[in-house]
Write a structure and sequence with these properties.
This protein has one domain: Gcn5-related N-acetyltransferase (GNAT) (Aminopeptidase), CATH 3.40.630.30. The chain is built from four helices and five strands. It has helices spanning 13-30, 42-51, 106-120, 135-143, and strands at residues 3-7, 58-65, 68-78, 89-97, 126-128. Helix 1 (13-30) crosses helix 2. The relative contact order is 0.16.
């Protein structure tokens, strides 16, 4: 069935929350000490993503198949950062595709559309982060031309 990529709408809040919560849990599974989770992140995550819809420097896209949201991407324009030693950029914050829909090109299409949006807004580059254990996503990003530029490392400080 064909998949449509479109800007998210407030009526997508439940689906966005469901997938945002799943993204949080996935990262938490990769490294529970590094990545936060809450008992029910769906409401908060959905509310957060819908709050970004009116921000002209942010975009939330959804992938829709047969009238059902099957994934989303969240990206924003970010200013130059002394702290991160980088110039202004587009930042791809989230990409998530329903497990049953994966490996069909939906994630690629979401990322490509997010890149197009950032380019249309004048972003000179796109930066993203990927959990170390998320090798499938990293392969997709490399295939789209992303290169590794930073490695985040974490140390837990015991009391």
């Amino acid at each position: 069935m064909p998949v449509t990529i479109r800007p998210a709408q407030p009526s997508d809040e439940e689906a966005l929350g469901r997938y945002g919560g799943a993204l949080m849990r996935l990262h938490h599974q990769f490294d529970p000490q590094r990545f936060i989770t809450t008992s029910h992140p769906e409401r908060g995550y959905g509310r957060f993503l819908v709050s970004q819809l009116q921000d002209p420097d942010s975009v939330v896209l959804v992938a829709e198949q047969d009238g059902r949201v099957v994934g989303y991407a969240f990206a924003a324009l970010e200013p130059m950062s002394w702290k991160e030693l980088r110039d202004a950029c587009g930042f791809l914050h989230d990409v998530y595709v329903d497990e049953a829909t994966r490996r069909g090109g939906v994630g690629r299409r979401l990322v490509v559309e997010a890149i197009r949006w950032m380019a249309s807004k004048g972003a000179p580059r796109v930066v993203l982060g990927s959990a170390a254990g998320n090798t499938g996503a990293q392969a997709l990003f490399r295939d789209l031309g992303f290169r590794q530029t930073m490695i985040e490392m974490t140390l837990e400080i015991d009391a």
